[in-house]
């Protein structure tokens, strides 16, 4: 008999649907009373302990889920992934992020070629480059060693590396290796993110890593051009080769951008963006910050879970169990969300990373064969470290909607503190919550209990907790680079398991394309209206009026110097203008660093003849002049003053708008 096209047509799916009623009649309070059940609902690997006894499930549920896995051909699908078959069929690609952390002697083929040697040759190059960089032998345009790295990338070229960086920052071994260095990320195309990412950085000691799989992502490329301008305006065009490097699968575009191909680090189309943290995307910036040996430990951790996932029986396989339970919660119990709640501040960027990993992978509307799905796939992932989340959204998960929770705890803190005289150490205080919350969710509190506590009658309904809210607990022995790699790999495979069961393609992302193409139509309109005064056309009424409203205000970066001057002349008597002008210049000089809107001053670093002359002239000015300056400053705002000064005194045409439209 031909196998059914959709998983929801199988007997095994229907058996689980039929089982829901029985489970809904139980309460976790009663399920938890069965110690044998609780003992069975655990799994352990290398000290990582999973307890899923607080899931609304019994042994029978797990059996049925394992049968569903069989019906979905889970084993075969995992094997196909590890063997490099092109399981990302809509993009005709293998899915081989496991090869990125495989040992040197592993053999993993894609298109009949073992990819492991290529992977290691890039890792060797990163190791060598990061050693040169960290030893101070790699110097910038002015001969200084570089200590700061800004990694420019978005989505998968940002969230995974940010998660790992944030987790490593307080690990004592990693922190020691990162002393005196900074790693920052620039993702959003919002110029505010540019300003934040380079705040207090000097281009002289900064290396920019442009990270983009395609090297065409609009946000990343504009941010990369903006930082290129930041470097050039300070150090000159020859500085790019020393201050900018890249990670991409598109080395041709890297070269065209002006980055020396020797300083480009490759990866491959068989690495999905959101699965790319173990490629040069994460390995390069993290090695620059922490050194390659720390990153290698992270990769080894991820690899250990790859082996566990590939070879353990499903009954004790952590990613498989987690994936099956998520399918159970989403597709059978009807819970659309999942909260990721690490009781570890170091894991504060885990939830944002999992959001992309999970929602971009599994938020699909058709099966892998293109058949519309009569079931919802994926879940809404969100989260926050405990205990911060407790003081934010836990009210809803205790008494409002039912949201299955992942509680993640660590036995040994990265930064233990014990204050003499305190009842417990600070980490024990944190972990008291980690152990208490799952029971509060599972058991709740009954009106009878409240009565026995003599709670006033009118408050009983408000203080009642229904309980029966599912969660699982994942306890890690510690949180070093190795466990961080393990945690990443657990989630990657769990999400793949969910997709394999639902029968979707978890490795494409066509859903992000439509918004991108509409944005380019808007971009064209904004350019036409700003530069050539073109009317808004081709949009619906709502978008047109929003655009007209937006375009009605001309931002400063598009204002001509003439217009600013006109404003000034109208405001101030002519004889004050000269004094004002010079005062503004002084103000500009003292506050320009590292101001992106002063290209002329940045370019000469105030060393040019005009700047020197004006500086010495200003030094002789009386203090009364500066009174005037401060009055004007408050009236116009510093940005106007700075721009006015540049335009008027140095006669430079405004550079910002040119840069923006390159
Ligand atoms: O958001 C869509 C997406 O394609 C992600 O999948 C990817 O991680 C991100 O954009 C960045 O893409 P790139 O690395 O090519 O710049």
UniProtKB/TrEMBL annotation:
E.C. number(s) listed in UniProt: 5.3.1.9
Pathway given in the UniProt record: Carbohydrate degradation; glycolysis; D-glyceraldehyde 3-phosphate and glycerone phosphate from D-glucose: step 2/4
Protein location: Cytoplasm
CDD domains, sorted: SIS_PGI_1 (cd05015), SIS_PGI_2 (cd05016)
Entry-linked PROSITE patterns: P_GLUCOSE_ISOMERASE_1 (PS00765), P_GLUCOSE_ISOMERASE_2 (PS00174), P_GLUCOSE_ISOMERASE_3 (PS51463)
Reaction equation(s) it catalyzes: alpha-D-glucose 6-phosphate = beta-D-fructose 6-phosphate
Claim: Transit peptide is one of the keywords in the record: no
Pfam families: PGI
Gene Ontology terms describing biological process: gluconeogenesis; glucose 6-phosphate metabolic process; glycolytic process
InterPro entries: G6P_Isomerase, G6P_Isomerase_C, Phosphoglucose_isomerase_CS, SIS_dom_sf, SIS_PGI_1, SIS_PGI_2
Keywords tagged on the record: Cytoplasm, Gluconeogenesis, Glycolysis, Isomerase
GO molecular function: carbohydrate derivative binding; glucose-6-phosphate isomerase activity; monosaccharide binding
Main location, first listed in the record: cytoplasm
Cellular component aspect of the GO annotation: cytosol
Quaternary structure and partners: Homodimer.
Family the UniProt entry places it in: Belongs to the GPI family.
Protein's recorded name: Glucose-6-phosphate isomerase
Organism: Digitaria exilis
Source taxonomy: Eukaryota, Viridiplantae, Streptophyta, Embryophyta, Tracheophyta
């Amino acid at each position: 008999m031909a196998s059914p096209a959709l998983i929801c047509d199988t007997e095994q799916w229907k058996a689980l649907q039929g089982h829901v009623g029985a489970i809904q009649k139980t309460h976790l309070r009663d399920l938890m009373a069965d110690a044998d059940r609780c003992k069975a609902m655990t799994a352990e690997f290398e000290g990582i302990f999973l307890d899923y006894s607080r899931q609304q499930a019994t042994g029978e549920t797990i059996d049925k889920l394992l049968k569903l896995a069989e019906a979905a051909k889970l084993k075969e699908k995992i094997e196909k992934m590890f063997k490099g078959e092109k399981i990302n069929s809509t993009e005709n690609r293998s899915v081989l992020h496991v090869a990125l952390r495989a040992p040197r002697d592993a053999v993993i083929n894609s298109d009949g070629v073992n990819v492991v040697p290529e992977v290691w040759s890039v890792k060797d190059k990163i190791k060598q480059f990061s050693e040169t960089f960290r030893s101070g032998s790699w110097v910038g345009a002015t001969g200084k060693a570089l200590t700061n790295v800004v990694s420019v990338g978005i989505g998968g070229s940002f969230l995974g590396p940010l998660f790992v960086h944030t987790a490593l920052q307080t690990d004592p071994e990693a922190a020691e290796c990162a002393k005196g260095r900074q790693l920052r990320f620039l993702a959003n195309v919002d110029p505010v993110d540019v300003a934040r990412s380079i705040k207090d950085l000097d281009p002289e000691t900064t290396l920019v890593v442009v990270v983009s799989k395609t090297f065409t992502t609009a946000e990343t490329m504009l941010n990369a051009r903006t930082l290129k301008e930041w470097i050039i305006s300070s150090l000159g065009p020859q500085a790019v080769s020393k201050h900018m490097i890249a990670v991409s699968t598109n080395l041709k575009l890297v070269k065209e951008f002006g980055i020396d191909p020797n300083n480009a680090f490759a990866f491959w189309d068989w690495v999905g963006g959101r699965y790319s943290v173990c490629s040069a995307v994460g390995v390069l910036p993290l090695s620059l910050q922490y050194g390659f040996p720390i990153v290698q430990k992270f990769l080894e951790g991820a690899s250990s879970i790859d082996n566990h996932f590939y070879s353990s029986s499903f009954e004790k396989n952590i990613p498989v169990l987690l994936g099956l339970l998520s399918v159970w919660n989403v597709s059978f119990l009807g819970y659309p969300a999942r909260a990721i709640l690490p009781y570890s501040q170091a894991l504060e960027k885990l939830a944002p990373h999992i959001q992309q990993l999970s929602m971009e992978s599994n938020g699909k509307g058709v099966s892998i064969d293109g058949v519309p799905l009569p079931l919802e796939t994926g879940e809404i992932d969100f989260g926050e470290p405990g205990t911060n989340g407790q003081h934010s959204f836990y009210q809803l998960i205790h008494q409002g909607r039912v949201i299955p929770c992942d509680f993640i705890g660590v036995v040994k803190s990265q930064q233990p503190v014990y204050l003499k005289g305190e009842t417990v150490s600070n980490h024990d205080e944190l972990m008291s919550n980690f152990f208490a919350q799952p029971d509060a969710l599972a058991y709740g509190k009954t009106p009878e209990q409240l009565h026995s506590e003599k709670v006033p009658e009118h408050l009983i309904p408000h203080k009642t907790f229904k309980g029966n809210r599912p969660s699982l607990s994942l306890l890690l022995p510690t949180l070093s680079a190795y466990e961080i790699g393990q945690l990443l790999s657990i989630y990657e495979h769990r999400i793949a398991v969910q997709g394999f069961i639902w029968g979707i393609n978890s490795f494409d992302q066509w859903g992000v394309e439509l918004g991108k193409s509409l944005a380019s139509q808007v971009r064209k309109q904004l350019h036409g209206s700003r530069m050539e005064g073109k009317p808004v056309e081709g949009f619906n009424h709502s978008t047109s009026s929003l655009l007209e409203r937006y375009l009605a205000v001309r931002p400063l970066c598009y204002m001509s110097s003439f217009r600013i001057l006109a404003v000034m002349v109208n405001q101030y008597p002519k004889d004050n203008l000269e004094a004002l002008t010079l005062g503004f210049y002084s103000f500009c000089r003292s506050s320009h660093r590292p101001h992106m809107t002063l290209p002329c001053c940045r370019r000469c670093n105030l060393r040019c003849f005009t700047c020197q002359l004006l500086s010495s002239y200003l030094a002789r000015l009386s203090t009364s002049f500066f009174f005037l300056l401060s009055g004007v400053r408050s009236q116009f705002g510093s940005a106007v003053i700075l721009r006015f000064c540049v335009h008027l005194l140095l006669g430079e045409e405004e550079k910002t708008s040119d840069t923006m439209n390159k």
